[in-house]
Design a protein that fits this description.
With 161 residues, the chain is of the alpha+beta class. It is built from 2 helices and 9 strands, in the order E-H-E-E-E-E-E-E-E-E-H. It is globular, with a radius of gyration of 15 Å. The N terminus is likely disordered. Component of the RMI complex, containing at least TOP3A, RMI1 and RMI2. The RMI complex interacts with BLM.
Length: 161
């Protein structure tokens, strides 16, 4: 199955989102052509500008232009979950995810204490970031994911022109 089918109604404003599928049914949201940007909750709280469908991550402090935030990749520990929503915590702080009832998850991972990856569309950045989920994966089986996450994000942002 193609990786472009993830969550119906994820609020993605990418061209083609919400188009009808062949045969008249409604299509799942199509992911943008660019890969999701790895970010920490604090980066969204501190540096995000704009609004839904037009978020940018300011990099003025480093003398570089902003990055478009179409889809983001975040990782964190599940703090609470229920009703299609979850609250997670990464090394920099808390963030929320909604729309989880519509995303593929593989093994059950909406359990407090599980370490997960969430790909999603930014809805709100302050006071606490909130994503509309597109994909969620349990990463709990390998502790290296959690221990390296902050360094991965830092390395990525250091090397994006």
């Amino acid at each position: 199955m193609a990786a472009s089918v993830e969550a119906a109604g994820a609020g993605n404003s990418a061209p083609g989102a919400g188009d009808s599928a062949p045969g008249g049914g409604s299509a799942a949201v199509r992911l943008p052509r660019s890969p999701p940007l790895k970010v920490l909750a604090e980066q969204l709280r501190r540096d995000a500008e704009g609004g839904p469908g037009a978020w940018r991550l300011s990099r003025a402090a480093t003398g570089r232009g902003p990055l478009e935030l179409v889809t983001v990749w975040m990782q964190g520990t599940v703090v609470a979950a229920g009703g299609g929503e979850a609250r997670l915590r990464d090394p920099s702080g808390a963030f929320s995810v909604r729309g989880l009832e519509r995303v593929p998850r593989g093994r059950p991972c909406l359990v407090p204490g599980k370490y997960v990856m969430v790909m999603g569309v930014v809805q709100v950045c302050r006071p606490e970031p909130c994503l509309q989920a597109v994909k969620m994966t349990d990463l709990s089986d390998n502790p290296i994911h959690e221990s390296m996450w902050e360094l991965e994000v830092e390395d990525l942002h250091r090397n994006i022109p």
